[in-house]
Amino acid sequence: MADVDPETLLEWLNMGQGDERDMQLIALEQLCMLLLMSDNVDRCFESCPPRTFLPALCRIFLDECAPDNVLEVTARAITYYLDVSAECTRRIVAVDGAIKAICNRLVVADVSSRANLTWSVLGNPLGSDHFPVVISYATPIACATLCQPWWKFDQADWETFRTQADITEDMVSSGSIDEAVSLVTSCILSAANNAILQPSSRLPRFPKPWWNKECQMVKKDKNKAWNRFRRYPTPDNMIAFNKARGKSTGNVKGNRG
């Protein structure tokens, strides 16, 4: 994240005329990458604070000339902010006309016409006032579980690399050009693997440092109250469920700060 200047990123997000649209798209892709790959949410929010970046993202939806590919990446960036903190919602609502603009640009699809998609209604409202609709793939799909590997050049042992990356004349003078390229590439990669460190290729997840045993307990109580109300839908059980849901929501918001 140190390689990205937030002020420049924000300036590019506010562009949107002619050739500037390409710069806006680049900024959006960069912002999505920062939010998705960041292993420290607090530092990410300090660099790209929602109070300045979310209004800029909302203004893109207010731009009637914004193309679909820009809107798609913008929606993705907004979603990443909301995934990290639900408090970002008020930043979006505070932008006049943002919700209406976002709804107007939504594309509604008929799931039943998609052979590879199925939908179902979740039996637990999960603290909401309605039952969520779950859309899923009917057949398993391959998902990325590892990120693209990269090298820590600042921690490289260049002396070892120079010693082991010994490209001889025999490698390039005999055989076909494809064979020569393969030999040279293998030699360089072998030396790099031995001399240059690589970080873990596991995809990072947004941490939730505020989640504790109390959160787990109130969530468990809420689920118990919901199961009781679902089996015996009496007024008393409904009141008990609403109280448990309110306590759970308040606890989570309080711990999030």
Label the structural class. Answer: mainly alpha
**Main sheet makeup:** 2 strands, antiparallel
H/E topology pattern: HHHHHHHEEHHHHH
Judging from the principal axes of the Cα atoms, what is the shape? extended
- Helix count equals 12
Number of strands: 2
**In which range does the helix fraction lie?**
55-70%
Q: Indicate the mean pLDDT.
A: 80
Describe the protein's architecture and organization:
- With 257 residues, the chain is mainly alpha-helical.
- Helices cover 57% and strands 4% of the residues.
- It has helices spanning 6-13, 20-37, 41-47, 50-62, 68-84, 89-93, 98-104, 158-164, 169-173, 177-195, 213-231, 235-256; strands at residues 117-121, 133-137.
- It has a two-stranded antiparallel ribbon with strand order 1-2.
- Helix 1 crosses helix 2 (20-37) and helix 4 (50-62) runs antiparallel to helix 5.
- The longest helix has 22 residues, at 235-256.
- It is extended.
- The protein starts with 5 loop residues before the first helix and ends with a helix.
Which key phrases capture this entry?
257 residues; two-stranded antiparallel sheet; 12 helices; 4% strand; transferase; ARM-type_fold; EC 2.3.2.26; ubiquitin protein ligase activity
Compact overview of the structure:
This protein has helices at residues 6-13, 20-37, 41-47, 50-62, 68-84, 89-93, 98-104, 158-164, 169-173, 177-195, 213-231, 235-256, and strands at residues 117-121, 133-137. The protein is mainly alpha-helical and 257 residues long.
